TrEMBL record:
PANTHER family in the cross-refs: P-LOOP CONTAINING NUCLEOSIDE TRIPHOSPHATE HYDROLASE, PARA FAMILY PROTEIN CT_582
Pfam families assigned to the protein according to its UniProt record, in alphabetical order: AAA_31 (PF13614)
Alphabetical list of SUPFAM superfamilies matching this protein: P-loop containing nucleoside triphosphate hydrolases (SSF52540)
CDD domains, per the entry: ParAB_family (cd02042)
AAA domain mapped to chain residues: 66-237
Species the sequence originates in: Arcicella aurantiaca
Cross-referenced InterPro entries: AAA_dom, DNA_Partitioning_ATPase, P-loop_NTPase
The protein, known as: Chromosome partitioning protein
Length: 313
């Protein structure tokens, strides 16, 4: 057991109680606390005491590769891009390394962070695997591969290209990216076309954002049919991470649509945390500021942190 892996283990499991584990492992003087918070090491003796306790909490199933999650819904304007951005920030705030991929030619995710796709974008690697992914840093833990309208041209070119549904998967596998990040979040366009298929084929799981109103809920089944197909034919064991309600308002219409979704899709996880409608979101996006920089403590910020913890639990 190495201390950097132990630090990662605790970041991946924010619900773990460090004091409780010190007690269980009979570690004195808050040595684990200190090792997690600073660069101090743990003694061989403490490591030996800690090992069986951490294994009990799942240390051996610590992933060695990034978990790739697509944020998907063929309906437009249901909070996919916002969720990709703020959930990515929330993971990064836990100290996890996150890569965001803007897979929508609208480039909204790139705009939210004020990132210019002219210098390089995801389409470059999807059309030519020899080109390295154009990763740009947002903060110490968060990076992005941007997009702009060029992605639309590339989507047309891909129509007749070989392995056209697996270009993103190939792009992610062509380098050490899997080892460099803990999470890769892909913002999908509002369609179930070629780009979304590329995202799903490159993913371990998908998160479906649902705005609980008639136009957004009707037709939700089509996503689940596509997910089922990817599971059958995609070869990547795609899981459903869960359904996340977005832009929720306190009214009977939203309540009844949420109830409908909970009943209709009861076999999937519906995130306990839901994202309320808040003007903070549009304000931060208009200023192209990171959400938590714009508003450190807000209902939406806390809710996305809770979603991150639900995913990690
Ligand atoms: N929780 C929220 N509160 C208020 N406004 C929100 C919230 N989430 C998203 N929005 C706003 O709603 C609009 C649509 O959100 P977003 O762009 O995230 O949806 P989308 O599903 O990615 O849309 P598209 O399908 O066009 O890509 C944006 O203007 C965004 O600022
Ligand atoms: Mg979007």
């Amino acid at each position: 057991m190495q201390i950097h892996n132990i630090r990662k283990f605790f970041k991946m499991k924010p619900a773990l109680n460090v004091s409780g584990i010190e007690k269980e492992a009979d570690i004195k003087g808050q040595a684990l606390h200190k090792a997690l918070q600073s660069n101090s090491e743990l003694s061989e003796k403490n490591l030996a005491k800690l090992a069986p306790v951490l294994i009990n909490y799942g240390y051996n199933s610590l992933p060695s590769k990034a978990k790739v999650i697509s944020i998907v819904n063929n309906k437009g304007g249901v909070g996919k891009t916002t969720t990709t951005a703020i959930l990515g920030e929330a993971f990064a705030r836990l100290g996890l390394r996150v890569l965001l991929i803007d897979l929508d030619s609208q480039g909204n995710l790139s705009h939210i962070f004020g990132i210019d796709a002219e210098v390089g974008q995801v389409a470059d690697t999807m059309i030519d695997i020899k080109k390295t992914l154009a990763i740009q840093p947002i903060n110490d833990y968060l990076s992005i591969v941007p997009s702009n309208l060029k992605l639309q041209e590339v989507e047309s070119l891909l129509l007749t290209a070989a392995s056209n549904q697996n270009r993103l998967r190939a792009a992610l596998s062509a380098s050490t990216i899997g080892q460099d990040y803990d999470f890769i979040l892909i913002d999908c366009p509002p369609s179930l076309g070629l780009l979304t298929m590329n995202a799903l084929n490159a993913s371990n799981s998908c998160l479906i954002t649902v705005h609980p109103e008639a136009t957004a809920v009707v037709g939700l089944n089509s996503i689940f049919n596509v997910i089922e197909d990817v599971k059958l034919y995609g070869g990547n064991n795609l899981a459903v991470e869960g359904i996340l309600f977005t832009m929720v308002e306190k009214n009977s219409v939203h309540d009844s649509y949420k109830e409908f979704v909970r009943e209709e899709y009861s076999s999937f996880r519906i995130f306990e945390s839901e994202i309320k409608k808040s003007v903070d979101v549009s304000k931060a996006q208009a200023l192209a500021e990171q959400f938590y920089v714009y508003k450190g403590k807000s209902q939406v910020g806390i809710a996305y942190e809770d979603v991150a913890k639900e995913i990690l639990s």
